[in-house]
Amino acid sequence: MRFTVDQGADRNRPTRNGTGGVVRLGAQGSGRGGFTLVELMIALALGLAILGAMYGVFTLQNRELGNQEQVVDIQQNARAAIDIIGRDIRMAGFNPQRTTGTFGFQLSASEDRATNQGSVAFTCDEDGDGTLDANDKEQIAFRVSGGVLERYSIAADGTKSWQPIVEGIEALNFTYTLVDGTVVANPTSAQVPSIAQVQIQVTAKTAKPDSSYVDAAHGDHHRRYTLTAVVAPRNL
């Protein structure tokens, strides 16, 4: 069988071989088969552009989700800190036996316990026996150290330490209202027995920075949440 290749204007016209059969080589009709290199490059560029846009949207949404999760975390941390401190302060000075000068707020005590602007320390007669026991149910204190809210602890063997209870707490501030209405941040030894209310202010900070956010007060990229509560000890 002999083949001939169509050229020029005759490319779409059938040719005959020696046996009378028709053989056609070349394009069929007016269309062309396959894609040119330029068309493939354009399609590839468009595909990459669409994938890039989709990836950008996914990255943005994922970052916003992470930021929202951090905001929820610091809100929960601040509320937990306020609840824990407030619950214990309400018991400050609990003294069913009316023991004189034993239970209440402490201006200063061992292991850096103190009642001032940045920490609070107090005692209560949790078991009602009229005696201040060497345990952390009757000797209570709170402070913030290294971004963690800590509570004074006395182990069963008598070991004294500060135990972390809530992470992500940047600042802890107290102000004290005395029975005569005076508000102080750092009460004196004469004022401590007259404390009637305690305002607790907790500031929680996100663990990771958000590059799209700037804290105007601190000049960094961490989000913060501040919560305030006023607690009145029931027994003072």
Tell me the major beta sheet.
4 strands, antiparallel
Averaged pLDDT, please? 87
- As a percent range, the share of strand residues is 25-35%
Outline the low-pLDDT stretches.
1-6
Order of strands in the sheet with the most strands? 5-6-7-8
The helical percent reads 10-25%
Oligomer: single chain
Number of domains: 1
Shape: elongated
Number of strands: 12
Q: What is the C-alpha radius of gyration, as a whole number of Å?
A: 38 Å
Query: Roughly how many Å apart are the termini?
Result: 116 Å
Task: Give the helices and strands as they follow along the chain.
Answer: EEHEEEEEEEEEE
Helical segment count? 1
Structural class, from secondary structure content? alpha+beta
